[in-house]
Structure formats: C-alpha cells, structure tokens
Write a structure and sequence with these properties.
The protein is mainly alpha-helical and about 70 residues long. It is built from three helices and two strands, in the order βααβα. It has a two-stranded parallel sheet. The longest helix is centred in the middle third of the chain and has 14 residues.
Length: about 70
C-alpha cells in the first residue's frame, strides 16, 4: 500500500468489521491489524474497514484496541 500513498498521507482502516472484529478471536484480530500495519509500512491509522456492528462484543473491541500497543 505504501506505493499508493503520497509522502504526507497515511492509510486508514482495513480490518473487516464482521469477519475479523465482530466474529474473530483475539489471535485473528491481532493478525489482521498487524498485517494491515505491515502492508502500510507503519503509515496507518488502525481502524475498521467500515462501521463496527452493534453485535461486536466489548471484548473484541478491547482486543482490537489493545493490538495497537503490540505494534
């Protein structure tokens, strides 16, 4: 993705809000966020690829947020 970005740009949001954030487990969330970050060369805002669904558990949102601190 870094080739698509100008020097002043960052990438935002790629983790699938249903498959990964709503229905995924901690390991799949960590894997998705880490891979997104790697593909963007660290130039990204960690966020979902679309809206977070109401069915997403607080635990999964916590796991999504906490993954940022592992990067």
């Amino acid at each position: 993705f870094t080739k698509m970005l100008a020097a002043h740009q960052v990438f935002s949001g790629k983790s699938d809000p249903v498959t990964i954030i709503q229905n995924g487990d901690k390991d799949s969330i960590i894997s998705s966020v880490s891979e997104d970050y790697r593909q963007a060369g660290g130039r990204c805002i960690v966020s979902a690829g679309c809206e977070i669904t109401p069915e997403t558990t607080v635990t999964n949102m916590h796991n999504f947020r906490e993954t940022v601190f592992l990067l």
